[in-house]
Design goal:
- With 212 residues, the protein is of the alpha+beta class.
- The protein folds into two domains: 123 residues, Beta-Lactamase; 77 residues.
- Helix 4 crosses helix 5, helix 5 packs parallel to helix 7 and helix 6 runs parallel beside helix 8.
């Protein structure tokens, strides 16, 4: 696969992924030509077309067009299946995905695509494994955001109460989610480091709350 484009019925580009080195000027030119060509085609026309020295495979889902460029020796039906699998991954992650999900969460769409395709080739065929990797990345991001929040509000007295209740929830979650135990321990360690110089009593209280 040379590249993948996602664009709306109005011709607005929502996502682009290039697997060949091209200049920005050439990318814009290709995008403009392909968007105009695909949108001009009628709904009942074939989803395959020849363009320059490449083959274009596209499919419309709701208000979005998924368009891929492949080489002459590549299989069009496999490419169509790749598009469908990517849509299934998006639908599974967002829950009935729509154009607004791509607009406001475009980084998630890129993450899913990168877990699914590598260098224009399929690297993971299992939807379960792809979604699991995305969930782990989301969890790490939540940990980072939480630690940043704690650091930014370390002088506020309210954060002590928030952390106390947070670790109460963590203690209950350990009985069901043993695989995320290291992440919670990391949060616990970060919180202790941030607050040990502020309140030794609070650190001892957290330790007692979590492990008793």
């Amino acid at each position: 696969m040379q590249f993948m484009l996602l664009f709306s019925r109005q011709g607005k580009l929502r996502l682009q992924k290039w697997y060949v080195p091209l200049s920005d000027k050439e990318k814009k030119k290709i995008t403009r030509e392909l968007v105009q060509t695909v949108l001009a085609r009628k709904p009942k026309m074939c989803s395959f077309l020849e363009w320059r020295d490449l083959k274009i495979v596209y499919k419309r889902y709701a208000s979005l067009y998924f368009c891929c460029a492949i080489e002459d020796q590549d299989n069009e039906l496999i490419t169509l299946e790749i598009i469908h699998r990517y849509v299934e991954l998006l639908d599974k992650y967002f829950g009935s995905v729509c154009e607004l999900d791509i607009i406001f969460n475009f980084e998630k769409a890129y993450f899913i695509l990168d877990e699914f395709l590598l260098g224009g080739e399929v690297q993971e065929t299992s939807k379960k494994n792809v979604l699991k990797a995305i969930e782990q990345a989301d969890l790490l991001q939540e940990v980072y955001n939480f630690c940043f929040f704690v650091k930014a509000h370390r002088h506020a007295g309210l954060i002590h109460i928030i952390l106390f209740h947070f670790f109460q929830v963590c203690r209950k979650a350990f009985h069901h989610f043993y695989h995320i135990l290291p992440l919670f321990l990391y949060i616990f360690y970060a919180a202790i480091q941030l607050y040990s110089y502020r309140s030794r009593h609070f650190s001892a209280q957290l330790t007692f709350c979590l492990f008793n």
